[in-house]
Description:
Layout: H1 3-13, E1 16-20, E2 45-53, E3 56-65, E4 73-75, E5 98-105, H2 107-112, E6 117-118, H3 120-130, E7 137-142, H4 152-156, E8 158-159, E9 162-163, E10 167-168, H5 170-178, E11 182-187, H6 205-212, E12 216-218, E13 232-238, E14 246-256
Parallel strand pairs: 5-7, 6-10, 7-11, 11-12
Antiparallel strand pairs: 1-14, 2-3, 4-12, 4-14, 5-13, 8-9, 13-14
Helix pairs in contact: 3-5, 5-6
Amino acid sequence: MSVLAGLVGALADGSIEVVDLTTPLSSDTPILNLPQPLANTVGLSLSPVSNFDDAGPAWAWNDVTVGEHAGTHLDAPVHWITGRDGKSVDQIEPGRLVGPLVVIDKTTEAARNPDFLLEPEHFEQWQEEHGQLPGNCWVIFRTGWSARGGNAADFVNADSAGPHTPGVSAEGAKWLAANASISGFGVETVGIDAGQAANLDPMFPVHSFLLGADKYGLTSLRNVDRLPTTGATLVVAPLPIVGGTGSPARAYALVEAS
């Protein structure tokens, strides 16, 4: 039996499960909201073209307006100034969008402190317990934050100081960017940086270091609690927008049934 035939068979008999990690995209999906005078992207809106009516008696379809960075989306290097000469989303090699998935679980810490930050020692401790990161892997940061996704205010968790969501410190972001095994970093929150990342040095260090190192971000993930710490495979499917700084994406994990 070929490798692909074995995969198809495992999917058919349920020994490999497909876990959808994508937040459903609607006009109510929370998106990043930057303070004035900075400009903001738009969320999703649908404009009917026809709906089984005189404009199209046998078909329904819509025009879609959506920001590149709305909902579950991929950040390409050209999204950030450190990667401005790098790849746009259409130029990312498909092989970089499929790879081993590893989960760093800090749900308890994030519940105690919404401003919790991953430090290099957290990555080192993970490797001491689970082994070296596999090549071309995606590191997924589990925080339990997606449980807030049904309420925009809870999801953003903002006060007068701005949003409070877990993320990665500047030194942690350097560690991610310098690790040759990593293709991307995924989070349950609205962006790959912490809510208070504007107060770090540099500001928004995950964007700065990761995208500048030809690595990619993946945001607003769900069902991360259904993933094993190691052993799953991630599939990320952004739209290949020519020149795009990112794209809404469907993200799946292939997980062996226990």
